[in-house]
Amino acid sequence: MQTQQEAWQTLAKAKVAATKSEIPQEWVLGQADLEDAKNQRQLSGPFIEKFLDKEELEIIRNDSVPLVEKIASGQYTALQVTRAYCKTAAIAHQINPCLHEILFASALSRARELDAHFSAHKTPQGPLHGLPVSLKDQFHVRGADTTMGYVGWIGTHEGDRSPGKARSAQSQLVGELLSLGAVLYCKRAADALARRDRQQLDRADVESGQPASVLRGFVGRDVANTNPGQTTHPSSVGFMSTSIDALRLVMASVLSTQPWLRDPEVISIPWRQEIADSTLERASPDGAANDRLPLKLGIYWTDGVVGPHPPVLRGLHTVLNAVKKAGHKVETSHSLIISLLEWSLLMVWYQKVVDWNPPLHSTARGVHWAFLMADGAHDIHKQLSLSGEPLIPDLEEWFQLRDPINLLEYQDLTLQGRDYCEAYSDYWNSTADGDQGQ
């Protein structure tokens, strides 16, 4: 008879194997390729791309907006695009496991349906027709598990084993994306996985566990959603992409479905293109400032707790120089973590620098963390107890089981959060003085 530890480990291994089995045999890497991956310093770019053919490379190198346009014009089929994305994700997962759910079979089937619609009607099925989208494993997709990494949630509905509940739910946003023509092809790990020693991915890889080449459309959700019943500071859904145009496309598309009619927590504000246009008009296509009303940008050098490493700081200097050269106004932070010499140099290089000193971000972080831990980590331990899995060592110190805070403490915490939001709003508005309301 298995011990509890052996039981959850067996279940976890079975889930990992089942997920891997969803990769088509033609995309399975050989042992030599996997060994070669272990010796790579850089996993992004050429190493992964060498497994793709010319057409697949062309597809994944397209940004979301031109990609959707090319599908709508008939240059690519939804099936061609979906296969390229699924194959790239399959290769990435074998090299550095990053996916909780592989939806390749349903994605390819969905792509064929979209192509059939396009063939019959000569028009796309929505503004996101054929666009591959990956999801963080907090969203429910009918027919797939949602585990958020909990072994006890495998084959259940958030741990509920009632008949008929497993894999039957579908998140509202998922339905909206499908109605707009998107193709859902995978769900990634709730947190970026630790990478192999010495190996590097780019920043998009760190956020998603996937190579940047497939991060054209990704939907994440913040950690507040993992704390049931906490509505004082609600979680938010965040679209991630490699371009502003892609974010504009998906935001405008989703808001066009009027999600507030189905979710009372969503404010009924449609996409306002006129506001986006008025902002774009403040700079020419090449980025030069509009003399009448240039953009006003802020650079926050440090939060007073953690200072950026020298290469990052040099990058910020480069951005600041380019923005000011283009004629835009920049507000920067002034922190003691930046050396006096460095600040003096900044003042020489960039005249008329205005300090950007908002309320301490450490205050916001403290309030946020207190909300997350208000239940004394009881919810996390409840989910772990479903299978008997332990906390991983890195989390043992932070999530030790303790007494929840009492109601009066929680109310005080709510007021602290409100006061901080008001202080930040007041500071933001104070920077508009003398700048035509900017």
TrEMBL record:
The keyword Hydrolase applies. This is Amidase domain-containing protein. Pfam families: Amidase. Belongs to the amidase family. It comes from Glutinoglossum americanum. Residues 81-191, 229-332 form the Amidase domain. Keywords: Hydrolase. GO terms for molecular function: hydrolase activity. Coiled coil: none annotated. InterPro entries: Amidase_dom, AS_sf.
